[in-house]
Write a structure and sequence with these properties.
An eight-stranded mixed beta sheet has the order 10-11-13-14-15-16-17-18. It has a three-stranded antiparallel beta sheet with strand order 3-8-7, with no helix packed on it. A hairpin with a 6-residue loop joins strand 19 and strand 20 (about 335-340). By secondary structure, the chain is α/β, with parallel strands linked by helices. The two termini are about 30 Å apart. Helix content is about 30%, strand content about 25%. The protein contains eleven helices and 21 strands. The protein has a domain at about 80-325: Alpha-Beta Barrel (TIM Barrel). The relative contact order is 0.11.
Length: about 375
């Protein structure tokens, strides 16, 4: 039903034929009704999806810009629209312990409910849906694309999927019928009630823990740290979602040994030592262009601190570091999954996920 052409990197551009395009145009309305909102006494409607709690007049959009008030209710304007689709290795999300070496169909919409000044995907997350969402893909077609490309999972990524919850939910429900897993790459900035629904249809999540300092979230993200920590605890303790965490280290802002020590101690003690943690290199982007790229030495130092604090699986990202990209048995310390960038070189695990060298269980989905 579609043609497939390859462009730079692993991105795949999907060009639909005219019959599919016509069908999609006939099937889509402009917006999708939502349920996470309530009317206020002052005539405004409050969006209850995330802690931001936008108060909206008729015709007004929220901070994320894809949810807005229309006909006295909150609707999702980005439903059934995507800013881009690609077939990636699952390690690119990054998820290193969720069906390693499998393929994932990645897509996003536009907008975001955080205002990160250093956003690495700012051209998507800071765009208005009217500027970037030109491709229409129904939930059914998205699942068909995953099947066509032999993908083990579908990833809601590029921008934060909590803001297109309804679209993600419809895709996930259809994907499960085909045995396809769902992945969320998210900042975890979501209220308790929608959080429960969102993670009910997610199989794996990589949560961006941008800092362990509330002031950093206020200064750089126009957000708060506490709700993200609550989301992390909820995922780990109340769901069966496989969880991994990523922190983008910005020189001089969130990369001190003291902060990394405090954060990784909290992860080990509160979430457990088996949660994989990724330290990723920053490069100048959007409104933060006065900082240098993160040195490899900073990533390695952070990894050492995390391992010293008891975390089993700690990785470096956005740099060429085969040691930091590989998984080591937390018992015998031998390499059980060797990687070079996103390429899997060795897989020394039994079918039940145990180390071939010493028999210790490696935690993940294999």
């Amino acid at each position: 039903m579609s043609k497939k052409t390859r462009s730079a990197g692993s991105r795949i551009i999907l060009t639909f034929d005219y019959r599919l395009t016509l069908l999609l145009l006939l099937c889509f309305c402009m917006a999708k009704k939502t349920v996470y909102w309530h009317e206020c006494d002052n005539g405004k409607i409050k969006c209850d999806l995330c802690p931001r709690g936008c108060l909206l007049d008729e015709g007004q959009r929220g901070f994320c810009f894809v949810r807005g008030r229309q006909n006295n209710e909150i609707v999702l304007h980005a439903y059934g629209k995507t800013s881009g689709i690609a077939v990636d290795p699952i390690e690119k999300k990054p998820l290193n312990h969720f069906y390693p070496n499998s393929k994932v169909l990645s897509f996003g919409t536009a907008g975001c409910n955080l205002g990160c000044k250093f956003c690495q995907n700012w051209d998507i997350s800071k765009s208005r849906e009217t500027e970037i969402l030109s491709r229409k893909v129904s939930p059914d077609e998205m699942v068909k694309l995953a099947v066509l490309n032999k993908c083990k999972s579908i990833a809601f990524t590029y921008n934060d999927p909590v803001i297109f919850l309804e679209y993600a939910a419809d895709i996930a429900n259809l994907a499960r019928l085909q045995g396809i897993q769902t992945v969320a790459v998210t900042a975890g900035y979501i209220n308790p009630e929608p959080r429960k629904e969102f993670f009910s249809f997610i199989d794996a999540a990589n949560v961006d823990l941008k800092s362990f300092n509330p002031d950093f979230y206020s200064k750089f993200c126009s957000a708060e740290l506490a709700p993200i920590l609550e989301t992390l605890e909820y995922i780990k303790k109340e769901t069966n979602v496989w969880l991994e965490i990523t922190t983008l280290l910005i020189p001089g802002e969130n990369d001190s040994s003291e902060e990394i020590d405090q954060m990784t101690r909290w992860i080990a003690q509160t979430l457990g030592p088996s949660v994989p943690v990724h330290f990723s290199a920053f490069h100048p982007a959007w409104k933060v262009t006065n900082k240098e790229r993160t040195p490899v030495s900073t990533l390695k130092r952070s990894r050492e601190i995390a391992i010293k604090n008891g975390l089993y699986y700690v990785f470096t990202g956005n740099v060429h570091d085969p040691e930091g990209a590989s998984t080591y048995c937390h018992n015998c310390k031998k390499p059980i999954i060797k990687r070079d960038w996103y390429e899997l070189l060795e897989f020394n695990l039994e079918k039940d996920g145990k180390c071939k060298f010493c028999g210790t269980q490696c935690y993940g989905r294999f």
